[in-house]
Amino acid sequence: MTAAANQSAQTLLHLAGEMLSPLPEGALWWEAQRVLVVSDLHLEKGSNYAAAGQMLPPYDTSATLARVEKLCAWLRPETVISLGDSFHDRRSESRLPPVYAERIRALTAAQDWVWVEGNHDPDPPAHLGGRATKVLRLGPLVFRHEPTGEAGEVAGHLHPVAKVAGRGRSVRRRCFASDGARLVMPAMGAFAGGLNVLHDAFRPVFPEGCMAFAIGEARVYGVSRRNLLPDGGAGGSGKWRL
């Protein structure tokens, strides 16, 4: 059973005075406003790689959509915000099988669906429904793709992951990253990679450091900064393609 289904198992976090629920599916639930936030779906990443000669199983779009569909069925949000890079590239629409397009249209027709523009998909396909924007402001929160460090910001783009030591070995999990004033969402796409929250790329967003909310099998776990491990050398300053 997931945290979306078992409310008592939810981890809660506060952001700009609002209480939010990070879910093990990789989404964020703002119950007071009935808003579900997903980020970096990277739909049709598998077909993008296949076109370049790197064969991956062509099921990433279906698997990612299934998680979103399940959450919408459980939570019945009034608004869904997709925080950019919903599609892996500008030609994803031409490779999208009709059955997946119909599933997307069913989702965008069932609730107020907002496509926040990302660096991979500045122009989400209009025929799939929903509405597009660069930035969305709701009450004290602001939603955009690339984080700027603004107070009350919920962003994506960086694909945060947490590496934590435990029982003689380390585990690496997708995570939510937050310092209580701003939050970076994990990538929800089935084939999306991740960047360690201790990497230098997070410093402009969290100058005083952040806490990670690591995704487990059935719930999300808060991890303090002192328990986080870097992936490689000190500082984690290696380049990562966003």
Task: Tell me about this structure.
This protein has helices spanning 45-51, 60-75, 92-95, 98-110, and strands at 13-15, 18-22, 28-30, 35-38, 79-82, 112-116, 131-133, 136-138, 141-143, 153-155, 160-166, 169-178, 183-184, 195-196, 211-215, 220-223. It is α/β, with parallel strands linked by helices and 242 residues long. The strands form two sheets. Strands 8, 9, 10, 11, 12, 13, 14, 15 and 16 form a nine-stranded mixed β-sheet that branches. Strands 1-2-3-4-5-6-7 form a seven-stranded mixed β-sheet. β15 and β16 form a beta hairpin. α2 packs parallel to α4. Mean pLDDT is 85; it is low at 1-8 and 233-240.
Strand content: 25-35%
Q: Taking Cα atoms only, what radius of gyration do you get, to the nearest Å?
A: 17 Å
N-end to C-end Cα span: 32 Å
Mean residue pLDDT: 85
**Unreliable stretches, pLDDT < 50, 5 or more residues?**
1-8, 233-240
Provide the succession of SSEs: EEEEHHEHHEEEEEEEEEEE
Total number of strands: 16
Computed structural class: alpha/beta
Q: Helix coverage percent of residues?
A: 10-25%
Number of helices: 4
Biggest beta sheet summary: 9 strands, mixed
Name a few traits of the molecule.
alpha/beta; disordered C terminus; 242 residues; 4 helices; 17% helix
SSE blueprint:
Blueprint: E1 13-15, E2 18-22, E3 28-30, E4 35-38, H1 45-51, H2 60-75, E5 79-82, H3 92-95, H4 98-110, E6 112-116, E7 131-133, E8 136-138, E9 141-143, E10 153-155, E11 160-166, E12 169-178, E13 183-184, E14 195-196, E15 211-215, E16 220-223
Parallel strand pairs: 4-5, 5-6, 6-7, 9-10, 10-13, 11-14
Antiparallel strand pairs: 1-2, 2-3, 3-4, 8-9, 11-12, 12-13, 12-15, 15-16
